[in-house]
Every structure is written in C-alpha cells, then in structure tokens.
Amino acid sequence: MVPSLWFKANKEYLFFLARFLFTYLGLSFIYAQYLSSFNELDGITKLTVLLVDWIYQLLNLDFSHEFNPIGTGEIFYYDSQGIFTIIEGCNGFSVFITYLSFLFAFRRANRHYLKYLSIGLSSILFVNILRIAVLGYLLLSFPHFGHIAHQTIFPAVIYGLVIMLWFLWIRESRLD
C-alpha cells in the first residue's frame, strides 16, 4: 500500500495516538515540574498518606507514620516496626494521567466528559487508597504475600479499573 493511502486510511487512529501521546507527555511534564518543586513529599502524596492513615484509624489498626528523613517517603509503623513506605509513585496520579490522556484522545463532542473525568479521578483515588491500605495490612499479617500483591495483583486491579472506565467512556461516546 502506498504510504499516503495508508495514512489516509488510518488518519483517525493516527490522530488518536497523536492526541494521546501529546496529552500524556504534556501532563507528565507538568506533573514532573510540580514534583520538582518539593524537597519532601508533594501534596498529592501527603493526601494519600492521610487517607490511608484515616482508613487505619477507622479500622482501629494501630499504625503510625512519619517522614523518612533518608528518603522521600512516609514510613508506616506497627508496634514500632517499619512495615511499608508510601512514596510519590504510590499516589496513583500517574495512573490518572494515563486515564485522562485516553479520555482526551478519544474525546468527541461528548456532554459526559466532565462526568467521566470526575468519576475516573475519584474511582482511581478511592481504589488506590484501598489498595495501599490493604497492602499495608498484608505486609503486616502475611509478609510473604506482599511482593506478589504489590507487583502483580494490585497493579492489575488499578489498571483493570482504568480499562473498565475506558470501555464505559467509549460506549458512552458512541451513544452521543
């Protein structure tokens, strides 16, 4: 196939990819600039720490936490033993950037854009906070299970949520 015909036949897909990459790289750059303005934890990660701590308080779990002066994270303790550390990568914001980039790239004249934006942000935040709280409990109670939960199960859960939201967004976009 002649390249110009191929581009013409795939124009819609190429524009989607270009919009996705442009949005993803742009938002990632802005987020990196935001993070570089902090010597300690950024505000999004601090919020994550506070929400995980709030869940532990609701469940009457005696976790405490403090800033790790050696690194850039917040260490959670149980009975004075360090169990896990929340760092910037735990706050889920990069997952939200991926989600938002897809929404923008697939955006049509859709009146539900802001609804899906807010549903996505709140769902990703909620599932991510639960993910961290459950992971901390697993590391405390079943330390041998922590690695597979952290590396495999919980990423599958949060990215599974994002993919499910994307499918709902595509269906909603096609109905408009």
Could you describe the 3D structure shown?
The structure is a single chain. With 176 residues, the chain is mainly α. Helix content is 69%, strand content 9%. It has a 3-stranded antiparallel beta sheet, with helices on one face. A hairpin with a 2-residue loop joins strand 2 (74-78) and strand 3 (81-86). Helix 4 (93-105) runs parallel beside helix 6 and helix 5 (113-141) packs antiparallel against helix 6. The protein is elongated, with a radius of gyration of 20 Å. The two termini are 34 Å apart. The mean pLDDT is 90.
Number of β-strand runs: 3
Q: Beta-strand level of the residues, as a percent range?
A: 5-15%
Shape: elongated
What level of helicity do the residues show?
55-70%
Task: Determine Rg (CA atoms, Å).
Answer: 20 Å
Question: Strand sequence of the main sheet, in spatial order?
Answer: 1-2-3
Q: Give the SSE order as H and E letters.
A: HHHEEEHHH
Ends distance:
34 Å
Identify the quaternary structure here: single chain
Biggest β-sheet strands, sense, barrel: 3 strands, antiparallel
Number of helices: 6
Low-confidence stretches: none
Residue-averaged pLDDT: 90
What is the total number of structural domains? Answer: 1
Structure classification: mainly alpha
